[in-house]
Specification:
By secondary structure, the chain is an all-alpha fold. The protein is built from 13 helices and two strands. It has one domain. Helix 1 crosses helix 8, helix 2 runs parallel beside helix 8 and helix 9 crosses helix 10. The mean pLDDT is 83.
Length: 278
Amino acid sequence: MMTLLKNELLKTFLKWRTFIGFIAVGTVIPLVEIGLKLEGGGFGRGLTRNLSQDFLAVGNLFNGYFLTFFIMNSLWVHIPFLISLVAGDQLAGEGTAGTYRILLIRPPSRSKILLAKYLTTLVYSSALVTFLVGLSLALGVALFGTGDLIFPGQTITVIAEDDVLWRLAGAAGLAVWTMWCVSSLSFLLSSLVENAIGPIIGTMAVIIVFLLISTLPIELFATLRPYLFTTYMNVWQKVMEQDVPWEELRLHVLYLGAYSVGFFAVTWYIFIRKDVKS
């Protein structure tokens, strides 16, 4: 099994499309943060102006911690697309290349082959999200320093500087957990077709439709929201609340995990029964 996983990791990380997400993140984040630094702080003052009108602001409000949280919020809709570029290619790519039959006549069972590909998908998703958070934090702290994390929501949240890092680490871990669910969906769609374009478009279409249903204040949609995985995709933000709602956070984690397991179970059923003709 370890040999299979190693081979799948090598095969995945030797493809150029695997690095599109890293290149995009590695380009956008420095451009944004360096641009904000060169801009002289006007953007930061605009974001914190309303807070300054109501509170006596002491210290560095526009700091690396604030910028990391801001970037995670801003890019969160785009990360599923970058992940689906790889997750959607794991199985469909074999069909496109015409290597399905060669892959499945090897001694390892179909279940082991599928598991190796799925674990590779999860490794990639984890690496991309970790890279996003790590680069945002490292560059943000280097350029803007540290301080208390203050951000507006339904209420004004203030997190002391010495209480921020563990929350950001928790948010990063929960973000990875969320993206595993997205990866599982894209992986499932990849088992249905023989071209990676379909899973990519399909994943984004499902997420966009589900997000609209999850967020639009329409009474008809209220009964559907508990059954959509997008309803729980903001779980990473829960750990950044003033008083962390641990029970709600636990339930969100369980729901997302159940969806991931369910998506993989359906994929396994399809893959095991797949009639490969080429």
